[in-house]
Specification:
Residues 44-107, 170-234 form the SLH domain. It is globular, with a radius of gyration of 21 Å. 39% of the residues are buried. The two termini are 27 Å apart. The protein has helices spanning 2-11, 58-66, 86-96, 107-114, 123-130, 146-156, 182-194, 213-230, 237-257, 263-272, 279-286, 325-328; strands at residues 305-312, 315-323, 330-338, 346-348. By secondary structure, the protein is an alpha+beta fold. Helix 3 (86-96) packs parallel to helix 6 (146-156), helix 3 runs parallel beside helix 8 and helix 4 crosses helix 5 (123-130). The protein has a 4-stranded antiparallel β-sheet. It has 2 domains: 2-230, no CATH class; 237-348.
């Protein structure tokens, strides 16, 4: 997945879905920050639809409607088989994931990824999600296909790096995806294994098939459920704040304030200042400093999409999904921490 986004760059919570489908766009009831503030006309708030009886997704559509998560059209229909555009799907994603502040995109990102959305109702959504590295590859009004939806969902979960497990694989999961097409394999395979995107009974994935409104409801529900499963445990706001501060302060001091660029200097810095950082943590995140010449994928600013989990007695996990610049593209980075009181955190390795 990271390679896929690098190529693009170089070439150019819990049932809070608020899935407000509308005739031309998506209504923008706010949840989180920096939501699109334009509101399309022509929506119906009915909780029953004239065209969903007997539809394969009728139960999910009606459940979402009764919960106030989706809306239909003025004529009482839902039009479940109408295709979803890229900007509509992106706006729905924004309403499922945790809120985050984000930051202004750089000139390269604006020109490469955001120019098509300039002046549209979805521009703020595009700008907001770009900081998290959640970016479609087509125009806002383009129909969304299954492969593109899958890539966006993986990024929204902070799990696009799962694709690395399938680099070079010879396993054939789908009859219409060749293992020679590594970029497709690294998107479809992890999503399939995680239960985000299913295949078809005939053994195909159908990467170019368009996503319908009904399918979008199902996918956004899956995203919501996956967020709960992947990021377990009750992490308080104070714990989240302390975790973020612990990691961001250390990274900021090392990379920006002290400008340390050699691994031995980093180890010496930690020991000299008796910092709460283990060598395993250093190896996991700063091993690039061991090379004489290196390019490193820059660290997050820690105002991008962040997920927190409590994964054991006194052990926590923090995943940041972000855009790391032209070199790195869309990246997810996971940090592990330990704490005895939920106030002071030690930076540790994954297996410590």
């Amino acid at each position: 997945m990271q390679d896929y986004m690098r190529q693009l760059g170089k070439k150019s919570a819990v049932m809070a879905l608020v899935l407000s489908f509308v005739l031309l766009g998506v209504a923008t009831s706010s949840i989180g920050v920096q939501q699109a503030d334009a509101r399309e006309e022509g929506v119906s708030t009915t909780v029953s639809f004239t065209d969903t009886t007997g539809h394969w997704a009728s139960k999910e559509i009606m459940a979402a409607a009764k919960s106030g998560l989706i809306q239909g059209f003025p004529d009482g229909s839902f039009q479940p088989e109408q295709t979803v555009t890229q900007e509509q799907f992106l706006s729905l994603i924004e309403r499922v994931i945790p809120s985050f502040a984000g930051h202004e995109p750089d000139a390269f990102m604006r020109e490469t990824y955001l120019s098509h959305a300039a002046g549209r109702w979805s521009e703020k959504t595009y700008t907001h999600l770009a900081a998290a590295g959640i970016m479609p590859t087509g125009k806002p009004t383009d129909s969304l296909n299954r492969l593109e939806a899958t890539r966006i969902l993986l990024a929204a979960l902070g799990h696009q790096s799962e694709g690395e497990k399938y680099r070079g694989t010879k396993s054939h999961f789908f009859s219409d995806l060749s293992t020679d097409n590594e970029s497709q394999v690294m998107i479809a395979y992890p999503a399939y294994k995680m239960g985000i995107m299913a295949g078809f009974p005939d053994g195909t994935f159908r990467p170019d098939e368009k996503i319908s409104r009904a399918q979008a409801v199902v996918l956004l529900n899956r995203l919501d459920h996956q967020i709960e499963e992947l990021y377990p445990g009750m992490v308080t706001d104070n714990e989240k704040k302390a975790m973020t501060e612990a990691v961001s302060t250390f990274v900021g001091n090392v990379m920006d304030k002290e400008k340390i660029r050699r691994y031995d200097d980093l180890v010496a810095y930690v020991k000299k200042n008796k910092l709460q950082v283990t060598e395993s943590f250093l190896r996991e995140h700063f091993s690039f400093m061991q090379y004489e010449v290196y390019d490193y994928i820059r660290f997050p600013r820690f105002n991008e999409l962040m997920y927190y989990a409590k994964i054991g007695m006194g052990k926590y996990r923090m995943t940041v999904q972000y855009y790391s610049g032209e070199l790195g593209g869309s990246v997810d980075k996971t940090f592990y921490l330990s704490s005895a009181d939920g106030k002071t955190f030690r930076l540790i390795g994954k297996d410590e």
